[in-house]
Amino acid sequence: MARATLIAVPIGLVIVVPALFLGAVCLVPLEQAPGIQEMLSILPPKLEGYTAQQGLFDLLTNTLFSLFFLMIPLMASAVSASCIFVGEKERSTIETLLLTPLKVRQIFRAKLACCLFLSFVTTAIAFGAFTIVVSVGDIMLGIPFFLNWSWLVIILFLAPGLMVFGAVFMVFEFNRINSRLESFQTIAYVALPFLLLYIAPFTGLFRVNASVLLVVSAIVWLCDLFLWIIDIRTFLPEKFLEQPLED
How much is the CA Rg of the chain, to the nearest whole Å? Predict the structure, then answer.
C-alpha cells in the first residue's frame, strides 16, 4: 500500500492532472465559458493582457498545481514514517530494536533520516516531471516559464518544511496509533490547512504570493521544531517494553 501510494499519487497529481487541465485549456473555447471572467479577475494586474487560455493556465499553475505539488512531500514523508515507525510497532519488532546496543536517539534519528531521504527523492522526481508537463503548456500557450518567486519559496522553504512536518507529526502520533491504516487516515487531517490556504484565493479573500508563503513556511518550520522536541522526549523504550503481551 505504501509503495503504491508513493508511486501512484505523485504520478496522478503532477503528471496526469496537469496534462488533463492543459488539454482542456487548449481544446475548450473558454472565452464564452460561464464564470471564466470572474475567475480570471483574481489574476495579478501584470497579467491583464493574457488571453483566457493563458490566464487560466497561469492561475492553475500558481494555485491548484502548487497545492497538488505540496501534497507530495507531506504525503511521502508521512507515509514513509508510518511504515518505518508505526509499521514496526504493528509487527511488534520495535521492542527488539530498542534492546540493541544502539542509543534510542540514534535509532530515532536514523529512522527519521530514512523518511526524509525517501520523501526528498520522491519530491525531486515529482518536481522534475511536473516541470516538464507545465513547461510544455507554457510553450504551447506562449507564456513565460512558470518558475517565479512563489515557486522558489515553495521549493526552497515550504516543501522541505512539509517533509519534516509529515515525519515528525507521524512520530508525534506514534503512541496513539496502532496500525498503518490509522496513520494513513491521519494524513488527510494534516493536509486540510493547506487545502484551505489555496481554496481561499478563489473566494477573493486574499492572494497567495511569495510573502504569504514565506509566513506559512516560517509557521511550518516552527511547528517542526516544536514537534521534534516533543518526539525526542517521548520516544522512549519504556513505553513499549512495559506494555502487556496480548493473548
Answer: 21
Report whether pLDDT(157) > 90. Answer: yes
Q: Please give the mean pLDDT across all residues of the chain.
A: 79
What backbone phi and psi angles, to 5 degrees, belong to 70?
-65, -20
**Alpha carbons 115 and 73: distance in angstroms, whole number:** 11
Dump pLDDT digits (tens) for 195-226. 776 666 665 555 677 888 899 899 999 999 99
54, 30 in Cβ contact below 8 A?
no
**Which residue is it, cell 533520516?**
113
Cβ neighbours for 146, distance < 8 A, ≥ 6 positions apart: 58, 61, 62, 134, 135, 138
Torsion (CA) 235, 175, 6, 1 in degrees, nearest 10: 130
Q: Of 13, 16, 128, which is closest to residue 75 (Cα–Cα)?
A: 13
- Our CA angle for 30, 32, 38, nearest 5°, is 80
Least-confidence region, from 66-80, 123-137, 226-240: 226-240
Q: Report the distance separating Cα 227 and Cα 168, nearest Å.
A: 6
DSSP code, position 143: -
Return the sign of the alpha-carbon dihedral for residues 144, 145, 151, 153.
negative
Considering the entire predicted model, what is its pTM? 0.80
Whether the per-residue pLDDT at 79 is higher than 70: the answer is yes
Q: Specify the residue for cell string 512520530.
A: 171
How far apart (Å, rounded) are the C-alpha atoms in residues 212 and 63? 13
Q: Enumerate the H helices of the chain as residue ranges.
A: 2-11, 17-27, 36-40, 52-62, 64-81, 87-91, 94-98, 104-141, 149-153, 159-172, 180-203, 210-234, 238-241
- Residue 111: all three cell numbers together: 529512522
